[in-house]
Amino acid sequence: MPASAAPSDEELMLDYAAGDATAFDQLYSRHKGGVYRYMLRQCSHGGVVEELFQDVWTNLIRARRGYTPSAKFTTWLYRLAHNRLIDHYRSNGVATTLSADDDMHAEAVATIAADCRDEPESRTENRELAERLKSAVSDLPAPQREAFLLHQEGGLTLDEIAELTDVGVETVKSRLRYAMNKLRSNLSDLYEAQR
C-alpha cells in the first residue's frame, strides 16, 4: 500500500480490533454522518435517535474482537444500525419504520452535512432544498425509504442492501426505482428549473 493511500475501512476495523483506538476515531469520523442521517430519517422519536445512534457505535465497540471482513465494512455497520432500529421498533410495538420530520434535529444534521457555503443566500437556499428533499424522502413508503437511504447514505450496493434487508436483489431494484420515480415526481419543479 502506498504511503499516501488511506487505509480501507476493513483495515481500520481490524486495527481497532487489535487495540488501535485511533482506527476507531477514523472510522467514526468517516461514517458518523451517514449513520446518523440514516437513523434520523428512519426514526423521528426525539431524543431516541441520539440514543440509537450511540447504541450502534457501542455495539460496534462490543463486536470489534469478533469482526471478520467477510463483507464490506459499511454493510456490516449498516447491518448494526438496521438491527438496532428493528430492536427499537419491536420493543415499542411499532410495525413500520417512521421518517424524521423533526425540526429539532435540523441543526445536528446541518453540522454533519457536507460543505455548506457561508453566504446567507446560499444557506437559505440550501436549507429550503434540504427541507424539500427531507420531506420527499419521508413521504416514501418505509421499504423504499430504507433502500434509498442505505444506497445514498450508506453507499451500499444492491446486493448488500438485499443481504441486509433479507429480500432479493430484484426487490431492492424495484424499491429503488419506485423511490427515485416518486422523488423525481415530488421534486419535478426542481428538475425543470435546472434545465
3D architecture notes:
With 195 residues, the chain is mostly helical. The chain has one domain (9-194): Arc Repressor Mutant, subunit A. Helix content is 70%, strand content 0%. Helix 2 (21-42) crosses helix 4 and helix 8 packs across helix 9 (169-186). It is globular.
What number of structural domains do the residues give? 1
The level 1 CATH classification is Mainly Alpha
**Number of strand segments:** 0
Shape: globular
CATH architecture: Orthogonal Bundle
Q: Structural class per helix/strand content?
A: mainly alpha
What distance separates the N and C termini? 43 Å
Please name the fourth-level CATH homologous superfamily: Winged helix-like DNA-binding domain superfamily/Winged helix DNA-binding domain
SS strand fraction: under 5%
What are the key terms here?
195 residues; mainly alpha; Arc Repressor Mutant, subunit A; 10 helices; 70% helix; globular
Topology:
Blueprint: H1 9-17, H2 21-42, H3 48-63, H4 73-91, H5 106-112, H6 120-138, H7 142-152, H8 158-165, H9 169-186, H10 188-194
Offer a concise description of the structure:
The protein has 195 residues and is mainly α. The protein has helices at residues 9-17, 21-42, 48-63, 73-91, 106-112, 120-138, 142-152, 158-165, 169-186, 188-194.
